[in-house]
Design brief:
The protein is of the alpha+beta class. It is built from 7 helices and 29 strands. Strands 6, 7, 8, 9, 10, 15 and 18 form a 7-stranded antiparallel sheet that branches. A 5-stranded parallel sheet has the order 2-1-3-4-5, sandwiched between helices.
Length: 507
């Protein structure tokens, strides 16, 4: 029976809770982690099953999103106050039986005050919370890596080496380790899913605390990781090679949270000496939503002669619902390698994309080309003059009974290379809308050349019934796009409209 129990509200944080479950399951095994969607069988008495799981729980992770506290029932009453609210029942029982209870704050949520909680849950307000912040995920992970590495010396059961996913340690977990620390362990040790138990050392991801190669990720295809200096040959030609894309360069997966598409955009080979070469793949993940999904190095393996090789790069991103992200994955392979397969894995599903590494063409060392030999697009800051500049606004959209208006659109320079687009939106909630309307980072997306981008800032508001609020959404702008669109989303409804690029003054 599970020692970890994930408590959450489906209409508040199902995506984050599911991602947390996947990470913990990969680290401890499915039998050690309980989450209702996976721990219940059809026809099973779910009340009895929850009771049984809670009786065996050492640590309950209370996943708290923006609507966790104020979610209402059909009568407009707060569900957290209802005697039959499962979230209240799960957490209050865990507190009563002395289990460690860790609040896990997601999507910019704040810890509720004790005065806002029903009496049975007020002790929760005194528990140390862990924030899993989408925008700072990588820096949070790196800090926790250092923390966990320092704790290994204490001979923690979690730090002990094992040939496979170890069992959850007996007893209660230290409260300050929390959910984020467990997620970290799952990510660093995520290579347990590799294909056979007798893998060569090159196929295994680094152990917790081991040094990681720098991660190379970018928000747009035009902003790939900075080019690494190419080794020069006697003739002055860069000793790097471009490889044509395979016939099958795109695969799709459907999960319980989203529809995702992985695409190989470019391939590069670079001799390394000692009979080795580096194979670099520029990969894009497009999340078509509706919920968040992970984008990590553990999802990729290069298969050579039936053996899996892990990427040299550490990648651990959260791709928001309706967003595209890019990453460069590098693999160390034999210099004589002519063909391989890229295995892509999402949860329990996987597929392999054949890669032919011949023919290859030398890459020129040219500042006008990117690290894969492609022409660099013009930067927006070099094309648009008189920055800052305003774009005509005023567009109105109705999504069901909720009204939105684009109040202002402005482009400003951030750095020498980068600008930003700030979109000011007013959300108006109709009277009688119960608990109000979510007005947050998922409400607005910027589409550049057909690919969606999430705002870089966090917006987390609830617009009360009959009220309206304004919020600013900020997006990075690097390459000058051929098309620029905005989309607004409320629940399952969305609307998209083009922004007038011809309104931007050109140099």
């Amino acid at each position: 029976m599970a020692g970890l129990f994930i408590s959450y509200r489906r209409d508040d944080s199902a995506g984050h809770a599911g991602r947390l479950f996947d990470a913990l399951k990969a680290r401890f095994g499915a039998e050690q982690v309980f989450m209702d969607v996976s721990g219940l069988r059809p026809g099973q008495d779910f009340v009895a099953a929850l009771d049984a799981a809670l009786a065996q729980t050492d640590c309950l992770l209370a996943v708290i999103g923006p609507r966790w506290l104020d979610a209402t029932n059909a009568a407009g009453q707060r569900r957290i106050n209802a005697a039959d609210d499962f979230v209240q029942l799960e957490i209050s029982r865990a507190l009563a039986q002395g289990a460690t209870v860790i609040p896990v704050l997601v999507h910019g949520a704040s810890m509720p005050a004790a005065s806002a909680l029903p009496p049975a849950l007020q002790p929760l307000a005194r528990r140390q919370a862990i924030s899993l912040t989408d925008q700072r995920w990588n820096s949070d992970v790196q800090e926790l890596i250092a923390l966990l590495h320092g704790r290994q010396a204490a001979a923690s059961p979690m730090a002990a080496p094992a040939p496979g996913p170890p069992a959850l340690p007996a007893g209660k977990l230290p409260a300050r380790m929390g959910a984020a620390a467990l997620v970290l362990v799952a990510m660093v040790a995520g290579a347990w899913w590799l294909f056979t138990p007798g893998k060569p050392a090159s196929a295994v991801a680094p152990a917790p605390g081991a040094a990681q190669a720098p991660r190379q990720t970018t928000p747009t295809a035009a902003a790939d990781a900075p080019a690494r200096p190419a080794a020069a040959t006697a003739t002055g030609t860069a000793a790097r090679f471009n490889v044509p894309l395979p016939a099958l360069s795109e695969v799709r997966f459907r999960t319980s949270r989203a529809q995702v598409v992985f695409s190989i955009l470019a391939i590069r080979l670079e001799p390394q000496g000692d009979g080795k070469q580096e194979l670099a793949l520029l990969v894009r993940m497009l999340n078509n939503g509706p919920m968040d999904e992970s984008f990590s190095s553990d999802q990729f393996r290069l298969v050579v002669a039936g053996q899996g090789i892990a990427p040299k790069d550490f990648l651990n991103e959260l791709t928001n619902g309706v967003q595209a992200k890019h990453a460069t994955l590098r693999f160390a392979v034999p210099a004589t390698l002519k063909a391989a397969e890229l295995e892509v894995r999402v949860n329990t599903e996987s597929t392999r994309m054949p890669l032919a590494l011949e023919p290859r063409a030398p890459l020129r060392s040219d500042p006008a080309l990117d690290d894969f030999g492609r022409a660099k697009p013009a930067r927006l800051v070099d094309v648009v003059k008189a920055i800052p500049v305003a774009i005509p606004a005023g567009q109105r959209v109705a999504l069901g009974p909720v009204g939105y208006q684009i109040v202002a659109l402005s482009i400003e320079r951030e750095t020498v290379e980068k600008a930003s687009l700030t979109v000011t939106v007013r959300c108006s909630a109709p009277a009688g809308s119960g608990g109000g309307v979510n007005f947050w980072s998922d409400t607005v997306r910027l589409w550049l050349d057909g690919l969606p981008h999430a705002p870089v800032n966090v917006v987390n508001e609830i617009v009360s019934a009959g009220d309206s609020k304004e919020a600013r959404f900020v997006f990075d702008l690097l390459a000058m796009p051929q098309s620029m669109e905005l989309s607004l989303r409320n629940s399952s409804e969305s609307s998209k409209f083009a922004l007038p690029l011809d309104a931007l003054p050109r140099r």
